[in-house]
């Protein structure tokens, strides 16, 4: 069965420290990969995506994620976090088969402390 | 103009009632989804429609019935509401499978 795993339910970190949020997925076929962010009481917004090409993708606010096919991972990183990065982060995957299915991981709450 | 809009934003109702949530997208997308987000923030796919056709029904109780009158709308009707139906329901639309999905702001359903 297709699944997306985010092992860390919560990641506390101090402001200006680096952070990595982990995402792994099951795969026997190629995939499209996404990271979404959800701020309190809001909907989901796309943070970044991997479709093809360079395995390292970046967002406009300093986040990056690297597609690792052999490890079936798409971890999200930021070298220096801000208080405003506190939010819920979701990894999502679409498998390149005939199904129209965007599957989400269980989410990781990033809690940035001053 | 909001790309994906859901109404209502909040819905409080009693057990046993029937209620509907509406979703509209103005992006010209072919695919629309309903997701349920529980209290632990887990996002579970419920339904997916492509060009008004049901593509995915993820073992959702029969009390939930989606309806897509046209490509731009995907409504969710829920019969005989139960306490466990309390959650935030998100509608989303997607143009092609390799593009991002756009989400509505969610409908917070509380069953009392």
Entry keywords:
heterodimer, A: 114 residues, mainly beta, 6-stranded mixed sheet, 4-stranded antiparallel sheet, 12 strands, 0% helix, 52% strand, B: 112 residues, 7-stranded mixed sheet, 11 strands, globular
- What is the straight-line distance between the termini of chain A? 41 Å
What overall form of chain B do the CA principal axes indicate? globular
Give the helix proportion of chain B (percent range): under 10%
Estimated helix fraction of chain A: under 10%
Number of strands of chain B: 11
Q: Sheet bearing the most strands of chain B, described?
A: 7 strands, mixed
What do you see in this structure?
- Helices cover 0% and strands 52% of the residues of chain A.
- Chain A has 114 residues and is mainly β.
- In chain A, the strands form three sheets. In chain A, strands 2, 5, 6, 10, 11 and 12 form a six-stranded mixed sheet that branches. In chain A, strands 3-9-8-7 form a four-stranded antiparallel sheet, with no helix packed on it.
- In chain A, a hairpin with a 5-residue loop joins strand 5 (31-38) and strand 6.
- Chain A is globular and about 45 Å long.
- Chain A starts with a strand and ends with a strand.
- In chain A, 35% of the residues are buried.
- Chain B is an all-beta fold.
- In chain B, 0% of the residues lie in helices and 57% in strands.
- Chain B is built from no helices and eleven strands.
- Chain B has strands spanning 4-7, 10-13, 19-25, 31-37, 43-50, 53-57, 64-70, 73-78, 87-94, 101-103, 107-111.
- Chain B is globular and about 40 Å long.
- The relative contact order of chain B is 0.34.
- Chain A binds chain B through residues 32, 34, 36, 38, 42-46, 49, 51, 88, 90, 92, 94, 96, 99-104, 106-107, 109, and chain B through 31, 33, 35, 40-45, 48, 50, 55-56, 90, 92, 94, 97-98, 100-101, 103-106.
